Amino acid sequence: MHFKIVALLLAATALAHKSTCPGSGRCCRCLTNRRYNNGQTQCVYDRVGAKDWGDDGHGLYFCKMTASQDKIAEYCRGEAGHCHLDSAITYGMGSYDCWDCEKEEGAGNGSQTVSYTATSDLEFYTGTRTEKPTRQTGPPTGPYQSYASKITLTGANSSTTAGTMFTGTLTTEANFTTTTSSAPKNTQPCNNHVEFCTRKYSNITNVGCHNSPFVRPGNSGSNQEVDVITQLNDGVRFLQAQIQWPGNGTGTTPHFCHSTCDLLDAGPIYNWLGQVREWIDQHPFDVVTILLGNGNYSDPSLYVPFIERSGITKYVYNPPYLPMALKDWPTLEEMILRGQRVVMFLDYQANQTKYPWLMDEFSQAWETPFDPMDRSFPCTVQRPPDLPKEAAKDRLYIMNHNLNVEFNVFGVSLLVPAVSLLNETNGVNGTGSVGLAANNCRADWGRAPNVLNVDYYNYGSPKPCSVFAAAAAVNNVTYDWTMPCGQGSAAPVLMIKSLWVSFVAVMVAGVWFH
Question: Domain 189-510 is classified in which CATH homologous superfamily?
Answer without folding.
Answer: Phosphatidylinositol (PI) phosphodiesterase (3.20.20.190)
